[in-house]
From TrEMBL:
Pfam families: HSCB_C. PANTHER family: IRON-SULFUR CLUSTER CO-CHAPERONE PROTEIN HSCB. The keyword Ribosomal protein does not apply. This is Co-chaperone HscB C-terminal oligomerisation domain-containing protein. Keywords: Chaperone. InterPro entries: HscB, HscB_C_sf, HscB_oligo_C. It comes from Durusdinium trenchii. Belongs to the HscB family. Residues 58-128 form the Co-chaperone HscB C-terminal oligomerisation domain.
Amino acid sequence: MVLHAVHGLLPWWKHQGQAFQPSFPATQAAVLRSPLRRAQYWMELNGQKILLEEQRIEDMQTMMEVMETSEELDAAKTQSEVDGLRQRNRSKIESVESELSEIFKHEDWMTARHRVERLQMLTRLQERMDDWRPK
């Protein structure tokens, strides 16, 4: 399964006998466009609980990493500073996506949960970066 490529995702799910059926076509498209939502959906299809908003985050290293980058984002004064942070974060997201593809193939759900948790934190940080405006 290629988590970051839609064309690789659906055939693998079909091969596994899983039906891709969120309620509405718009929801299906949103899930396919978002690596985080695809990962969460795949975990749910396989009966695995995903990190909910109120659950405790277990990946303290990622939490510290995100907090540090968040502080850098708050201190950023120029778009080029934010672009550098965005590029660095995007690389981390792509790395997690790659890891998840392999982890899902091996059905290592505990590791997958931790990687999805990391992906969730990095994705939220990326969204903050995308919304950044000079002060």
